[in-house]
TrEMBL record, chain A:
Family: Belongs to the binding-protein-dependent transport system permease family.
Record-linked SUPFAM superfamilies: MetI-like
PROSITE patterns named in the record: ABC_TM1
Location within or outside the cell: Cell membrane
Protein name: Binding--dependent transport system inner membrane component family protein
InterPro entries attached to this UniProt entry: ABC_transporter_permease, MetI-like, MetI-like_sf
UniProtKB/TrEMBL annotation, chain B:
Family: Belongs to the bacterial solute-binding protein 1 family.
Any GO MF annotation of the entry: maltose binding
Signal peptide limits: 1-22
Membrane-spanning ranges: none
Keywords of this entry: Signal, Transport
GO BP field: maltodextrin transmembrane transport; maltose transport
InterPro entries, A to Z: SBP (IPR006059)
Gene3D superfamilies: Periplasmic binding protein-like II (3.40.190.10)
Name of this protein: Bacterial extracellular solute-binding family protein
Domain of life: Bacteria
Taxonomic source organism: Geobacillus kaustophilus
One GO cellular component, as annotated: ATP-binding cassette (ABC) transporter complex, substrate-binding subunit-containing
Record flagged with keyword Lipid metabolism: no
Amino acid sequence: MKQAFTKKMKRETGTAYLFLSPTLFVLLLFIIGPIVFAIFLAFHKVQLLGTMSFKFVGLDNFVRMIDDTRAKIALWNTLKYVAIVVPCQTMLALVLAAALNAGLKGEKFFRIVYFLPTLTSSAVLTLIFMWMYNQNGLINRVLESVGLPTYNWIGDPDVALNAIMIMNIWATAPYFMVIYLAALQDIPDSLYEAAELDGANAWQKFWHITVPYLRPVTSFVVIMGLIGTFQLFDQSYIFSAGSGGPNNSTLTVVLLIYQYAFKTLGTMGYAAALAVALAIIILIATLLQRKLSKEESLY
Amino acid sequence: MGKTKWMAALGITTMLFGSLLAGCGGGEKSEKANGGSKQGEKVEVTLAGWGGNPSEQKLLRQTLDDFEKKHPNIKVKYEVIADQYMDVIKTRLAGGQGPDVFYLDAFEAPALIETGALEPLDKYVTDDFDINDFEKPMLDAFKGKDGKIYGFPKDYSTLALFYNKKMFEEAGVEVPKTWDELREAAKKLTKGKQVYGFGVAPELARLYYIAESKGGKVVTDNKASFADPKVVEALQPIVDMHLKDKSAAQPNEVGATWGGEMFGQGKAAMVIEGNWAIPFLQDTFPNLEFGTAEVPMINGKKATMAYTVAYVMNKDSKKKEAAWELISYLTGKEGMKTWTSKGYALPTRKSVAAELGFDKDPLRAPLVAGASYATVWQNGTNLPIIVNNFNNQFVSAFLGERPLADALKEAEKTANREIESK
């Protein structure tokens, strides 16, 4: 009896894998394969053009990072960007969602309006913003008319990264706002009613009911935000025409990887090593976030 | 029962696999069919380049049509790679899907030649192609270390001084002949933050000849050497014009994207730009009155930059004979004459230049004159790394964040470290 059972099991598993095989094949070819290949590249000196060659160099590519001034600048820029953008967009998203959930008039209309930036591709958005950031553009005109100082948003190394931050917060906050909105609908009204009976004001209700109740969602939003911001590429790429300038101020890790992979010949291996290092940094940041928020239930 | 189930599963899987593999292999198969250049069969040659303006496109189309008429067995498939041209080309070459013939900027040539991805063209050249007709510096830009020629320059452009006639008249200044005169003129032409006397592009591609004007070298033995005090001394006036005189600015400080636009909008009275600015200014700012002159002399010597682009052949091309036919027509006397006839680019063949008479054209004469003494924008395989570091730090000096000498010293160190660990 037992024998037959395992036989049947085996056959069923076999059938299952057979049916799965097209998907597994695609996964292996397009997802697992490239990852393995990238790790393989990271330990080699690679020449792809002309006569293809791979030379095993051990950890040389990783050691090289320690001495690479531009890699340090890129990492610093990226960390600065993550440290400012993630909290800002999370808070903005929460506030927007709470405001839109308060039962105001024209709520649906505002939900659509706020969500619109997310629908635009980031490349188009960047081009529009560059146009507004222009020295004689919309933003400077507005600042000027209210008596605030104007900036050379794109050309000044001190403000270029901030300009990208502002743009990105504005563009991604609505996406997380929608996630918060969905979670807000889940909070039982009875909690608020009970708080009201106890004499809590609107702020107390928000701080002691809404925020704690949303913690798992916040955790999700922060992790997605972390991953997204660590991978900042297209905005700074378009902003600086691929150079990471002015004066390396918009150079991010992914942009640097791109430059080593495609701009200079023969540094594909180093680029792959940088990519692996970035993956490890993101992994660590995500684990830290989970540890800090003590939220295990969601994942 | 069990058997039929197995059969069904196997059948579906095979089908899915089959369609997947068919999807992958399709491209290759059709390529082969085209590649076999049997007698009488039409051969399709792919040609890749960047866009250029519509009038330029029309000229190229016309040149290609002429070619197809004369070679009925060859069809040219022209592909425009509009953005990040070299990245796309390199990726496609590495993936074995490169075009048969493509544009190559002299700046990128040494590194690409070294990889062995290009086909040497010497063995195809015949006597009536008349190789000695080319301007030598432009041809040399596409020679490999082995002395072989890997590309024939399709055209070139040099830099010249563009000046706004009306502003010059109002300020009562003469067209400057030397850099000292230019600096004085720029001061007189500047009107606060509205109009700058001189529009600068603070990048090595435009400043190379100035940097080397005092005897220093930007690149020595394929390594950066631009922290040389002689180079710093040569470049200092540019920084001073921006910070001390306040008579020079880069385009993005006035909200323009490049010198030609800044000049056309009347925000700079002088810029140093190339041939490409002439049709741009005439089309976009038809009311602008401007003149061109040779780049002012530095230390009593004439100097300018030359930028050149060649047609090169992919080593992996399966249609090399047809590809050569195309290259030899496009860079031959006939094709080049059609392509350069409207003056968007200058011909690299002396005979064509003489025939078209651009040396007598009032706007283009200074550009043509520059060809004989210009520095070709190219230097070894590491120039891309050197340029990147130079530009990054030069901008910080230009913006007054640190002294030029310090900035260049740091840039040189970073560049050489990158080169060494390559």
